[in-house]
Amino acid sequence: MRWWPLQTITIRKIDQTAFHEQIILSRNLFFVTVIKDLRLFIRITSSQAIIRRYFVVNGFDGALTMLGLATGFRVGGEAALPLMISACVGAAVALGVSGVTSAYISESAERQKALKELEQAMAADLNHTAHGMAARLVPFLIALVNGLAPLVISLVIITPLWLVRFAVDLPWPALDTVIGLAFVVIFFLGTFLGRVSGEFWLWSGIRTVSIALVTAMIIVVVSH
Amino acid sequence: MAKIRRLILDVLKPHHPNVVELAGALSAQGADYAVTINVLEMDDKTETLEVVVEGSDIHFDRLVERITELGGSLHSIDEVVAIADDNDSQD
Question: Which residues form the domain of A154?
C-alpha cells in the first residue's frame, strides 16, 4: 500500500460491523505503512546518524542553557518565580524555533542537492519515487527532532519551577532542583552518546557532566 | 491471458535501498514469488542488477511499479517464461 502521493482507500460497505472493522483495519494498515515508509526514507538517505546527532547536540544545548539560566538566577539572587519561568520558557521556545528552522533550511538544501546528483546518475526523474519523497520529508523530520529536543528537554528541566508555581511542595529549593535535574539530564545524554559510540556509558556520562560543571563554574565566576 | 512463471529483468537502481530490501519488496508483491538478484555492476551512485522473479502468476506491472517507487528503472526484460492459462487454451 502506498500512501504517497495521496492514495484513496476504497472500502466496500457490506454491513455496519464489517464496515467499521474495515475502517479500523485500513487505518491500522495506513499507520503501519506510513511508519514503515518513514523508516525506509530515513534508511535510504542514511539519516539515522544525523537525527541522533541533532538530538544529542541540540538536547545538550537546551539542557546547558537551562543550567546556565538557573545558575545565573541562583548566583544573582533569586528573581520572582514568574520571571524565572518566563525567561526559561522564552529561551526554550527560541532554541526550539531556531532548531526547526535552521535544520530545515540546511537539510532541505542538502537533500535536494543529493537528489539532483542521484537523478543525474540514474538519468531519470526521481521526484515521484521513495527518493523524491525522502528528499522532501526527511528534512522536515530532522528539523522536528532538532527543534523538539531542546524544547522538550528544557521544559522537563524547569518542571520544578512549574510545580512550585502550582503550590507543590518540593524537598529542595526550586532552583537547586532545576540545577540538579539539568545535571541528571546531561548525564543521561552522555550515557546515550556512550552507548552510540560503544564507549563505557559511565565515562561518557561523567564527561558530559564535567562539561556542565565547568560551565556552571564559569557562570559563577563571571557573575561574581 | 497467459501466466508469467519466470522473468529476468535488467534493472538500474541507486545503492539505497540495498538489494536485500529490494528483493524483500519484490517478493512481497506475490504470495509465492521467489526473487533472486545478482549485482552485475557497481558505480559511484548506482548499481546494475539482474533480477530473477519466479512464481505461479507474476504480475509484471506491479513489479515494475515497485521498482520505480524504490528509485530504480527497468532497462530491459531479458527473459520471460509464460504458460497459457487453462481458460485461454480452451478457447
Answer: 61-97+146-223
